[in-house]
């Protein structure tokens, strides 16, 4: 599972000095914890192992799991073990602010009090005493705006840049005191300690008792990306052994000199080949690595999930207006149906509400794509589907600076083949903007592992066919399917409808047929030989014939014995057997059969 492997103390490598041995010594397990079974319910084995390792290290770890392996859930599960250190601070990219709030509500729900009170901080913030006030666009338990939060808020979600701009107000947690529980999503954004972003985040992370770093790409350009992350994830007793940043990059990075008219500039990048193994040894003291190919056996072949985007106050107002208009249209249709009139709302007016929502959501969808597939190093590719041309145009407007392709109904066959070939072969072209109506069938795009439906359409068949563009026979890695939406809007209605239709298809089309009952073996017929003797050898070898109540009644009814049962009389099994034997004897000679033999006695006609 672990690409970098689990920490195991080794002898000091040549040239590394004693500081690596001291770092390893200080990075060993602090405790032998027990993972809370309730908190870890629903996690895969590799996630439970990551939680256990984090608890061993007193809540400090760098989770370098590939995209789609559930870093968010793993990080929240770790922090659920340290509720006493909350409020929890979560720093993440702007594109996933609302997504984090949704995951917190789902995975941090208390059985009695429900989800924790959560504040999303997106703008200018000031502090008055111990309370943080004037939060622009804050969210607490949904979309309820607030102007103030204090110690009652349990989770604060914001971006790295908002923290840097409002450091005086957000440096300390609500109610006063340093943050004790911090999650850094996409921690590779904190690279050089000389940048303003890192200078704002570093003291907050170092001062926290628990700090979980999440990233699928811990090293984007070189070894100098790792120093800050190692420093933040290291245990306090090991942190003093880490060498300074300047010495770290001189040892592990390739050095070059850039000549300018104003002098020379030293440039450090990449990793020195002779020190790769040693750097791996340093990184193992803080990292838990999981790659898709290593844990594929634990994962479903396809994961489908919604991704929620934050709506600005202006967009939220429009979303609420469209939702109110849709409800009014529904009511008007119900009245028209009751009155038996044809004055119903035209279908195109209803659909326009959903298209307008998708157009409003296009910018947020584009930001999400750029965050994970443009600004991040790697070779993962993403397919973005939309149905209407207006949505495709809006997406293209916000992605025009990215290397991408677009295919819709106006693309000729020749252009289409050339664009698809470029998307498959060009490593720099990582985004394909495709029409859901045109490209949901007939394409093999399994070299991509992610699909984002920037617009949802009402046809579940279209979506299923589009998902199969990457979820195909021969795929070696799990697929991730995301549906973009705004919370508390009409988007949820479409998504719920698609899920219901998919469930119906599974129940009707994909359900396994009921088990077919085993056929009963034919009962061999026992006939007498020339002397009138029954040969039971064959019958006994092939198994006893069934003794049915109907057959017993027939034999009894054929008897004129005075002991025959009356209507409604209940006979024991022994009595039925005795009467059947007597009836058979009166009808003719029979072969004596042991009382324990389950065979029915058959009379021999004279």
Q: What are the main properties of this structure?
A:
39% helix, disordered C terminus, Rossmann fold, SNF2-like_sf, Helicase_C-like, alpha/beta, coiled coil, hydrolase activity, ATP binding, 606 residues, six-stranded parallel beta sheet, seven-stranded parallel beta sheet, 22 helices, single chain
- What is the class of the domain at 302-510 in the CATH system? Alpha Beta
Taking Cα atoms only, what radius of gyration do you get, to the nearest Å?
36 Å
How far is the N terminus from the C terminus?
Answer: 81 Å
Tell me the strand order in the biggest sheet: 3-7-2-8-9-1-12
Pick out the low-confidence regions: 1-15, 137-145, 536-544, 555-570, 587-606
The number of distinct helices, counting runs of at least 4 residues, comes to 22
Query: Based on DSSP secondary structure assignment, what is the total number of beta strands?
Result: 18
Question: What's the average pLDDT?
Answer: 78
Coiled coil: 265-293
Keywords: Coiled coil, Hydrolase
Domain Helicase C-terminal: 368-520
Region (Disordered): 540-596
């Amino acid at each position: 599972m672990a690409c970098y492997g689990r920490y195991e103390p080794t002898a000091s490598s040549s040239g590394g000095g004693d500081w690596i041995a001291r770092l390893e010594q200080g990075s060993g397990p602090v405790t032998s914890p027990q993972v809370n079974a309730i908190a870890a319910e629903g996690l895969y084995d590799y996630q439970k192992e990551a939680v256990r390792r984090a608890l061993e290290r007193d809540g400090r770890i760098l989770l370098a799991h590939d995209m789609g392996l559930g870093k968010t859930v793993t990080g929240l599960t770790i922090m659920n073990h340290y509720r006493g250190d909350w409020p929890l601070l979560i720093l993440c990219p702007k594109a996933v602010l609302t997504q984090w709030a949704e995951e917190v509500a789902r995975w941090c729900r208390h059985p009695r009090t429900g989800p924790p009170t959560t504040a999303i901080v997106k703008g200018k913030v000031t502090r008055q005493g111990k309370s943080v006030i004037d939060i622009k666009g804050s969210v607490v338990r949904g979309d309820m705006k607030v102007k103030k939060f204090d110690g009652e808020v349990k989770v604060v979600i914001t971006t790295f840049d908002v923290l840097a701009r409002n450091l005086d107000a957000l440096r300390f947690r609500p109610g006063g005191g340093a943050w004790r529980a911090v999650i850094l999503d996409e921690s590779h954004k904190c690279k050089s300690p000389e940048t303003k972003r890192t200078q704002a985040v570093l003291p907050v992370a170092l001062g926290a008792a628990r700090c979980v770093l999440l990233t699928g790409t811990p090293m984007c350009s070189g070894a100098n990306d790792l120093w800050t992350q190692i420093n933040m994830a290291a245990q306090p007793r090991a942190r003093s052994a880490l060498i300074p940043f300047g010495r770290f990059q001189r040892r592990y990075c390739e050095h070059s000199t850039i000549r300018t008219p104003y002098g020379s500039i030293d440039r450090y990048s990449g990793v020195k080949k002779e020190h790769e193994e040693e750097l791996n040894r340093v990184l193992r003291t803080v990292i838990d690595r999981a790659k898709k190919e290593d844990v594929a056996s634990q994962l479903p072949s396809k994961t489908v999930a919604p991704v929620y985007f934050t709506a600005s106050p202006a967009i939220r107002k429009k979303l609420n207006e469209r939702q109110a208009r849709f409800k009014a249209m529904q009511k008007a249709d119900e009245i028209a149906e009751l009155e038996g009139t044809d004055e119903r709302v035209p279908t195109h007016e209803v659909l326009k509400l959903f298209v307008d929502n998708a157009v409003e959501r296009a910018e947020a969808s584009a930001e999400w794509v750029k965050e994970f597939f443009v600004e991040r190093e790697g070779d993962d590719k993403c397919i973005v589907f939309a149905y209407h041309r207006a949505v495709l145009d809006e997406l293209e407007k916000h992605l025009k600076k990215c290397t991408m392709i677009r295919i819709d109904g106006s693309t000729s066959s020749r252009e289409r083949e050339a664009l698809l070939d470029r998307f498959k072969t060009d490593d720099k072209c990582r985004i394909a903007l495709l029409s859901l109506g045109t490209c949901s069938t007939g394409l093999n795009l399994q070299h991509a592992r992610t699909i984002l439906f920037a617009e949802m359409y009402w046809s579940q068949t279209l979506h299923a066919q589009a998902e199969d563009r990457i979820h195909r026979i021969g795929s070696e890695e799990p697929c991730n399917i995301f549906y973009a939406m705004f919370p508390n809007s009409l988007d949820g209605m479409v998504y719920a409808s698609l899920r219901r239709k998919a469930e119906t298809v599974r129940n009707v089309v994909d359900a396994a047929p009921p088990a077919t009952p085993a056929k009963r073996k034919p009962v061999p017929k026992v006939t007498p030989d020339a002397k009138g003797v029954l040969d039971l050898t064959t019958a006994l070898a092939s198994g006893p014939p069934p003794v049915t109540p109907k057959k017993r009644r027939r034999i009894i009814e054929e008897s004129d014995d005075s002991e025959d049962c009356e209507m409604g009389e209940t006979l024991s099994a022994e009595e039925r057997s005795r009467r059947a034997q007597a009836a058979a004897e009166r009808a003719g000679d029979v072969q004596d059969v042991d009382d324990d033999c389950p065979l029915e006695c058959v009379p021999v006609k004279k």
